[in-house]
Every structure is written in C-alpha cells, then in structure tokens.
C-alpha cells in the first residue's frame, strides 16, 4: 500500500471554519511490540496466465473474506495503475500478482465474485483495481472502520500495532513499484500489507458491533462500492504558488504551462512534477518570457524537462501573450458551490448565523458519539445546506426537506438520523434577529 498520495488523492483545500480535522498518522513506535513477519514465507510473483489460473483456483477454494491491496507508482508515474496486487484468504495463503504482463485478470475476478474484500483505505485502491477488471460485491475498509471507532491514528501500521500489538515495516511505502524486477525486500513489505488484514477486520468488526456502530459501517462500506475519484475542475489552480501570481495573463500562463506539462507527462507516463516543478511554472508565469533564451534564463525555471521541452513551454507562453483578455482565466475559480464561509458575515449575515450554529452542533454531536466530525457528515454538505436552505420554515416540512437535500448530496441514513434535527434547528434559529446584550448579560451577570 503506497502511502504517497496521488494527485487526485490530495486533501481538500484549507478549511478554516473547523469542520475537517483529520489527524496526521505519525505515531511513536513501541519498540517492545514484535515485528510482523510472514507466516508462510514469501510467495513468488505470479506473472503468467497459467500462474493466474493457479491463484484463482486457490482463492476460490479458500474460505471467508479476502484481503486485497495494490501497489501503485505514485510520485513516479502519471497513471494510477496497479503494478502489484496482493491477496490473502484463509485456506488460500498469500499471493502476489503482477498485472502488467497478464493478458486478463478475468479468472481472478470470477474467483472473487461474491467474496467480501478487506481493504485499507479503499478509495486509494478501488480505482486501479477496477481498471484491471476487479470490482468488489461487498467490502470492509479497515481504515474507515478505525475512523468510525474514533481511533486517533488510522494508518495500517498504526492500527496493526494498536489493535494487534505488532509492528509493521514502513521503509518501502514510497517506492517506485513500476520497477522491474521488484526487489525481494519490497515484495516482503507488500505481502505484509495483507498478512493480518483478516485478523484486523475481525477485531474492528467486533468493536463496531459492541459500540453500536456496525450499521454505520455497513452503510459506509456499501457507499464505497460506487466510489469514483473526484474530477477536479480547473486543476491547474492547485499549482503550488499560483496564488502569488498577479494579473490574468500570468494566470493564463500558469494554466497553459500546466496543461502542456500534463500532456507531456501523460504521454511519457511520468508524474508531472518530475518533468517541470510547480515552482518553475510560477517563475515562468511571473516573468512571461516568449523565447527560448529568455525562458531558460528565467530565475527559478528549472527541472528535468525545462530545456528538453523548451519549445513546448515557449509555444504555450506565446499563445498566452497573444490571447485576448476575455479568454484569460478569472482571478477567482469557477465553482457551483457556496462562497467561502469566511465571507458570509458580510455577504449574508443570516447564512453566517446558520452556518455557525450548524458547525457548533456538528462538533457537539461528533463528540457525543465519538466519531470524527468529517465522518459524521461531509463538511461540504453542511456549507451548501446552510448557504441555500429549503424555503419552508414549518418545522416538520423543513426537517423533511433537509433530509431530502442530504440524501441528494449523498449522506447516508445513519448520518441523517444524527444531524437532521440539529441542522433544521440551526436554520430556524438563524432567522431570528439576535438580541443585543448588555455588558452584564454578555459576561453572565
């Protein structure tokens, strides 16, 4: 399981209103905890269709859920394809499958039909597994289970140490898994990722049951079956440092260079930053050179592809220099959502009161039920609802409308059960003009 995030997996932008609080997974290791080792030794990598037939037969003959993981080459490759797939099932043992040379994974997909998958951080691996024809009919996500149980750290190594009392190796988490042949130490690291997933799943399932959260997890796991990565609009605006650019033409240059870099990266299947770093894009967009010599002389313009693809970068900059003003990007990004909550007090004081009341209620409910607030309800749903609530103010009708709106956004029934009343109350209370307090009243006198 590669820990380095893909570009599509990066966390959302700043959330200063405080609804999203995902802790870092940087625990201190317990030197007394035994190091996790492979019980059955390191299996050979399966890289032929005949070998896959053997894997598929073994998996089909096993019992219970199957632990699955995939290794990508995040940080090295443009694509998010799986370069290694690890599987373990009771009665089947552990298998390592290299999907790159195989003609199809259909036999494995057939063997997995109707079997519960156990994954850790399923949203990281589902897209690349789907790309090779593997789709779960049901799943258990150990990371998400850990979040619902309010574990402060939910990385796989941390949960294994906390729940099972064993330490896991982490030294190859950011390796280039497109490397061939894969070193034996990397393969052992990969095999260990599925070694105890079944045991971890069983412990967490028991905790979910005893804490009354088993149904929550069931709904969350079912929701993940249809997961699709977010397609970011105007992804070029996430270029590091682009906020420092002044003027629409500089923004246009950043966009053009980002798009040109993306095309080159896709053609070469290399992560974009290895061709031209974000800092070089910002440097060129600031200086706006229009010929090769001045571009390469621009301070801060560097990278492996700076000179090699200089003609591509110059062409992009020349097109922006000739572009009419109305074709250049606006300073503010386009979006269909509400404005940032920090602007609400000036733009719509009632909406601001709604949001503040809703935020406080969500934090209180999350604390009462011992669940992270971002898992209680997606923060964007709260923002959208508080900015543009249903028009009715009859309490029962409003609660129904709030529930319908949350359903349309994608909120699960267990989430609605916990938050609809509080969100309805926040909408109703905000419509009342706040009363001025005397100094004594504000101090509690």
Automatic annotation (TrEMBL):
Basic and acidic residues biased stretches: 333-348
Ranges for region Disordered: 1-31, 328-348
Domain of life: Bacteria
Pfam families: DNA_pol_A_exo1, DNA_pol_A_exoN, HRDC
Gene Ontology molecular function: any one: nucleotide binding
Domain HRDC intervals: 247-327
Annotated InterPro entries: 3'-5'_exonuclease_dom, Exo_C, HRDC-like_sf, HRDC_dom, HRDC_dom_sf, RNase_D-like, RNaseH-like_sf, RNaseH_sf
Acidic residues bias (residue ranges): 12-23
One Gene Ontology term from the biological process aspect of the record: nucleobase-containing compound metabolic process
UniProt-recorded name of the protein: Ribonuclease D
Native organism: Nocardioides seonyuensis
């Amino acid at each position: 399981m590669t820990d380095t995030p893909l570009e599509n997996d990066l966390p959302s932008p700043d959330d200063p209103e405080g609804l999203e609080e995902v802790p870092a997974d940087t625990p201190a290791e317990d030197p007394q905890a035994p190091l996790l080792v492979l019980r059955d030794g390191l299996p050979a990598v399966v890289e032929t269709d005949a070998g896959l037939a053997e894997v598929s037969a073994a998996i089909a003959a096993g019992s219970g859920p199957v632990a699955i993981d995939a290794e990508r080459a995040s940080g090295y490759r443009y694509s998010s394809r799986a370069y290694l797939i690890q599987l373990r099932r009771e009665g089947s043992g552990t298998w390592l499958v290299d999907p790159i040379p195989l003609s199809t994974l259909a036999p494995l997909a057939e063997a997995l039909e109707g079997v519960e998958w156990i994954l850790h951080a399923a949203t990281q691996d589902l897209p690349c597994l789907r790309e090779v024809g593997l789709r779960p009919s049901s799943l258990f996500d150990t990371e998400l289970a850990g979040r619902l149980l309010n574990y402060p750290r939910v990385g796989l190594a941390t949960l294994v140490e906390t729940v099972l009392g064993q330490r896991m190796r982490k030294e190859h988490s950011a390796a280039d898994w497109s490397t061939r042949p894969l070193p034996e130490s990397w393969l052992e690291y990969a095999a260990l990722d599925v070694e105890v997933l079944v045991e971890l799943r069983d412990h967490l399932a028991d905790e979910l049951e005893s804490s009354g959260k088993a149904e929550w997890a069931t709904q969350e796991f079912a929701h993940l079956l249809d997961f699709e990565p977010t397609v970011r609009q105007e992804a070029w605006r996430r270029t590091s440092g682009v906020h420092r650019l002044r003027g629409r033409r500089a923004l246009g240059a950043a966009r053009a260079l980002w798009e040109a870099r993306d095309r080159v990266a896709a053609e070469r299947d290399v992560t974009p930053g290895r061709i031209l770093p974000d800092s070089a894009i910002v440097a060129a967009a600031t200086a706006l050179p229009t010929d090769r010599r001045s571009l390469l002389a621009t301070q801060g313009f560097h990278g492996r592809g700076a000179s090699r693809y200089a003609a591509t970068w110059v062409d992009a900059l020349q097109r922006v220099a000739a572009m009419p003003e109305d074709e250049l990007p606006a300073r503010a990004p386009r979006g269909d959502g509400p404005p940032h909550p920090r602007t609400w007090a000036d733009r719509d004081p009632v909406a601001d009161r709604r949001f503040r009341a809703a935020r406080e209620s969500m934090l209180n409910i999350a604390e009462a039920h011992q669940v992270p607030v971002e898992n209680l309800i997606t923060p964007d749903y709260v923002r959208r609802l508080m900015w543009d609530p249903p028009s009715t103010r009859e309490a029962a009708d409003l609660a129904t409308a709030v529930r319908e709106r949350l359903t349309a956004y994608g909120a699960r029934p267990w989430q609605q059960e916990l938050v609809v009343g509080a969100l309805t109350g926040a909408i109703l209370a905000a419509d009342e003009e706040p009363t001025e307090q005397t100094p004594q009243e504000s101090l509690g006198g």
